Model the fold of this input.
Amino acid sequence: MKIAASLLATLALVASTVVAGPTNGKNKHHHQKYLRISKKVLRADKVPFIPHSGSGLFTNWVGMNLDFKYVKPFVNMVNSTASLNNNTALISRGEAHITMITPPEYDNILSKAGVTIKELNAIATNKKRPLQRAKFSIPCLGRVQAVTKPDNVFQQSWQLIVNDDKKDLLRYRQDVFKLFVKKGGNPALFDPEDFMPHITLGFKTRDLFVEDGVYKRRNACIAKVVAV
Ligand SMILES: *[C@@H]1O[C@H](CO)[C@@H](O)[C@H](O)[C@H]1NC(C)=O
Ligand SMILES: *[C@@H]1O[C@H](CO)[C@@H](O)[C@H](O)[C@H]1NC(C)=O
Done:
């Protein structure tokens, strides 16, 4: 009961935070709309790195783990705000992360040059520059849509777009690139700069990827976000 009540209170609070942002002194009539999220979501250093490894395809990938507790209220807000969700009930995975190395990058490129998931996890957890301590910001709520093959189904997915302000995330991928090349990998096949950091919030039936033709960068923004 107590948990349900506090969840309801959180929901009400979040629902009411689709608010007018700071007014511009020069033009008081110009109101910028912001969606709020707890700035605690930015503190990935407070949660552990979670390795993702397995023996099959799509089981090995690297992500920066985030505390879903601070993302959940935002998911609920999108899920209950018709102007944001296009009358779609969101399916959530119940966790939050920023993908750093995708399963296809691992399966098709890195592992073929002998780079192991163990090595990728070791780079992520190195003492000098642990991935969980990377700084980032969240400029906006993104939404991507596509009619997917082969079923011609209209899909939508929602994500928080991530800005790699300090290039900490890029640095991780550059370290991976160095290892890949050292192991004899073809540099043409892995571009450390070609990644789209984001936090998946939910989707209609399945998530959408670059393979579906969508780009989860600022192009996909539908509303500004402020971390408070
Ligand atoms: C809302 O979803 C429908 C399909 O259910 C789609 O045709 C339409 O373009 C979407 N509208 C917006 C504003 O995204
Ligand atoms: C979104 O809302 C629907 C009800 O409209 C609910 O069935 C679904 O579980 C909700 N999704 C999440 C992620 O909470």
